[in-house]
Design brief:
The complex is a heterodimer of chains A (about 180) and B (about 475).
Chain A lengths: L15 E5 L5 E5 H4 L3 H13 L9 E3 L5 H12 L1 H4 L6 H14 L2 H14 L2 H15 L4 H8 L7 H10 L11
Chain B lengths: L1 H34 L10 H17 L6 H16 L7 E4 L28 E4 L20 H17 L14 H5 L5 H8 L3 H9 L6 E4 L9 H9 L7 E4 L7 H10 L5 E3 L8 H14 L5 E3 L8 H12 L19 H4 L11 E3 L6 E5 L13 E2 L30 H6 L19 E2 L6 E2 L1 H15 L1
Parallel strand pairs in B: 3-4, 4-5, 5-6
Antiparallel strand pairs in B: 1-2, 7-8, 8-9, 10-11
Helix pairs in contact in B: 1-2, 2-3, 4-7, 6-7, 8-9, 9-10, 10-11
The chains are: A mainly alpha (about 180), B alpha/beta (about 475).
Pfam family, one (chain B): F-box
Protein name (chain B): F-box protein skip28
Organism (chain B): Quercus suber (Cork oak)
């Protein structure tokens, strides 16, 4: 089963690179996009060094840590990157960026996107997704974070109390949602 | 009688099996001692684990002084593939070798790939397992007195385990997802404190990472609760390497508290203390003096909203800066309507603005002096403080005397152009400026809004009548 990602100009001369995800789907992406992922880039260059002309661009690069759904989103983010890359100069642009981040996805998605972006060493994406997730965590209580991200509080009760006390000054009037 | 005999039998068999398990564990321990390996977390069968460790150890010993992580990973992969090549699934097992503190990361099933996590240790993920012989064993050794590196190793190995079941994680509480460690660097102070109370591994990550504490920004609502003692505690986490200290409206901070922090952290290059009303001009001068004597590192200072800053205070502060920058020039204009934007308030702002306040050319007092964005004003100077020349809250342009100040619901100034464009209260036809836009009351069933005053006057009393 193969799923080739849609391509605006199929006859373009730019080389294609095929990526294979953890669930065995194949993605054909333009070289320019794939080179944003430093891990892929590294692999690609290594491959080139190893056997120069034998296989060329037809090699399939396996990405066993990335699920196809996540990779699809990363690629689409990568494609629209140049437009949103302009340096935000003033307040208004910062606001629109924030809105964009908010609409990008649920924290559940973002967590996967971040680990994939980290694995792929995709700097711009990592920054964007991390910031988006940080926006989600803003002004949330400890219990909220635990519940939301499925984390087990593994403190001893007396320890927990101690830390609570240490930071009690900070936790007044938190969103309890 | 029969029942008790059965019970006795069961008890004995339990005892026996526990004995066997203990023996196994001890053997395992010996094995680890022999290989000089410590297991942090593993879900591989023991036999497989031992094979991996032995293989890794042999290679490590045979390697010349410098660790070639890639070679090691390749060798490991070869050895493991040999065992399980036929039925190996693409599931990843995870084990950590802590012999020479290397933890090696094999990222791909097809081609071993090693990433050093830092210069001294690596992480490895091994492809393994027929599902049938997979008895999941969790050997997590928790050593309380571990140094920072140890805890990081623990973190990294824990996070590998968690990444394995990332899709089931939403249901059952478990260790945190690895992404949450990455996001820490992007969190402001309050969220950082909250995260540190979520679980042990996150707490260790927050407390041990100096990088998270180099830029400390205290904003509302934390700022009003921040006392000298708490500030000292927070800044001590940076272990003297604090670079940015932003305290916005922290009214409880005193001169002495500030001075203590400054003395402990001589590398501060951004010191923002706007509206910290507990400070005095003398305290600020002392802080700036200490910093300039030590390293001359201070690049920008924000002190507007501190009371009683006189002209000679300002000159003293300026003189400390001038030692560093001989030609004083303010290239970036300060615009009135940008003064509350996060960029100006926080660390992002332009380094060209070294001190935010200046001496107003009109009234000669020390305060924020704004430039005018209006084209025609650029030639003739209308640089002045807000009291001398009123400015529009929306566009920052000066409001010329001939022009009438428009009435707003919040009492701030607006120029005629901006006034016309803004949405207005349904009752009194007055707009809110952007600072007070959240004071609008939306009524169901009608577009637009009602301002605070009209809401109290009309809507609330009307509501009371209906009740």
């Amino acid at each position: 089963m193969s799923n080739t990602s849609e391509n605006p100009n199929p006859s373009s001369s730019s080389a294609k690179i095929t990526l294979k995800t953890s669930d065995n789907e194949l993605f054909e992406v333009e070289e320019a996009v794939a080179m944003k992922f430093c891990t892929v880039k590294q692999y690609f260059e290594d491959e080139k060094d190893n056997d120069v002309a034998a296989r060329g661009s037809s090699t399939v690069i396996p990405l066993p840590n990335v699920h196809s759904a996540v990779l699809a989103r990363l690629i689409s983010y990568c494609k629209k990157l140049p437009q949103s890359n302009a340096v935000a100069d003033n307040h208004e642009e910062e606001e629109t960026k924030k809105k964009e981040r908010k609409q990008y996805g649920t924290p559940g998605d973002l967590v996967d996107l971040i680990s994939a972006a980290n694995y792929l060493d995709f700097k711009e994406g990592l920054e964007f997704f991390n910031q988006a997730l940080a926006d989600h965590i803003q002004n949330k209580s400890v219990e909220y974070v635990r519940k939301f991200f499925g984390i087990k509080g593994d403190f001893e009760p007396h320890e927990e109390e101690k830390y609570r006390e240490e930071y009690a000054w900070a936790f007044e009037g938190v969103d309890e949602d | 009688m029969e029942g008790s005999a059965e019970e006795e039998l069961e008890r004995r068999s339990k005892f026996l099996s526990s004995l066997i398990q203990k023996k196994k564990a001890i053997e395992q321990e010996d094995q680890h001692d022999y290989l000089n390996v410590r297991v942090r977390a593993s879900d591989m069968p023991l036999a497989l684990q031992n094979r991996a460790f032995r293989c890794a150890r042999d290679h490590l010993d045979s390697m010349p002084s410098k660790l070639d992580s890639k070679r090691l990973a390749l060798a490991l992969k070869k050895a493991m593939e040999f065992v399980h090549v036929k039925k190996a699934t693409r599931e990843r097992g995870c084990a950590a070798i802590d012999g020479k503190r290397e933890v090696i990361k094999v990222l791909s099933f097809y081609k071993a790939y090693v990433t050093p996590l830092s210069h001294s240790y690596f992480e490895f993920l091994l492809p393994i397992l027929k599902p049938t012989d997979m008895e999941i064993s969790h050997v997590v050794e928790d050593n309380r007195n571990e140094d920072m590196q140890d805890s990081q190793t623990l973190l990294s190995s824990k996070s590998c385990v968690s990444s394995q079941n990332e899709y089931t994680q939403e249901v059952e509480p478990g260790p945190p997802h690895e992404s949450l460690f990455l996001v820490l660097a992007y969190l402001p102070l309050f969220e950082l404190l909250a995260m540190s109370e979520v679980c042990m591994s996150l707490r260790d990550a927050v407390h041990n990472d100096v990088l998270l504490w180099l830029n400390i920004i205290v904003e509302r609502p934390l700022s009003s609760r921040l006392s000298d003692g708490i500030l000292m505690k927070i800044t001590s986490k940076a272990s003297g390497r604090l670079k940015t200290l932003v305290l916005i409206n922290c009214e409880k901070i005193t001169d002495d508290g500030l001075q203590l922090v400054i003395r402990k952290n001589p590398h501060i290059n951004k010191l923002f203390l706007p509206e910290c009303t507990g400070l005095t001009p003398e305290g600020v001068i002392r802080a700036v003096k200490t910093l300039s004597e030590n390293h001359h590192g201070l690049e920008s200072l924000r002190i507007h909203g501190i009371y009683n800053i006189k002209k000679d205070h300002f000159d003293t502060i300026r003189s400390y800066f001038q030692m560093k920058l001989p030609q004083h020039q303010r290239q970036q204009p300060i615009l009135f309507h940008h003064r509350n934007s996060p960029k100006f308030r926080n660390e992002e702002s332009n380094p060209m603005i070294d001190i935010d306040v200046d001496i107003c050319p009109k009234c000669n007092n020390v305060s924020m002096v704004y430039d005018c964005p209006r084209e025609t004003c650029k030639k003739k100077s209308c640089k002045a403080c807000n009291l001398c020349i009123p400015r529009c809250e929306e566009c920052g342009e000066c409001i010329i005397e001939s022009e009438e100040l428009e009435a707003t619901a919040c009492g701030d100034n607006l120029c005629s152009n901006c006034w016309l464009q803004l949405p207005k209260c349904n009752f009194c036809n007055q707009p809110y400026c952007k600072l007070h836009i959240n004071h609008q009351h939306r009524l169901s069933g009608s577009t637009g809004f009602v301002c605070d005053a009209c809401h109290v006057k009309f809507v609330a009393t009307l509501g009371a009548c209906y009740c």
